[in-house]
Please model this.
Amino acid sequence: MVELLEQVNHWHWLAFGLALLALELVGTAGYFLWIGISAMLVGALLGALLGALPIGWQMQWLSFASFSLITTWLWWRRQLSSDKRSDSNRELNQREKQLVGQTLVLSEDVKKGSCRIKFGDSSWSAKASQDIPSGTEIKIVALDGIVLIIEPL
Model:
């Protein structure tokens, strides 16, 4: 087995990378993309150092693992920041954002500061800037996380 690993050259790594990229085209949602690119990087590194610096099979696999971790981590960081930006602008499946602008009649008195209000079939945390008596029509004007900011109409 070791003899087989010692015979691996840059062409093998490039072919392995292309095979992983081809698998990515089947539709694996990015799982093989960065691993395939990492294999291609190892192949390019071995090709560039063709005779100048022999790299053993252990170092080849260590390089492949390192490149895979680094490229995947960098993509994850970029994607995470992109997802956070798009989530802040999205209202789909975020019920609390859909409540802004809605009006309702209070069934209980609300004291200034934090309180709970009944809206629809749920109870929500809310903040009021003043005391509001029951029976008053209020409007949900903003959000603070998942806390509704309310004002009387």
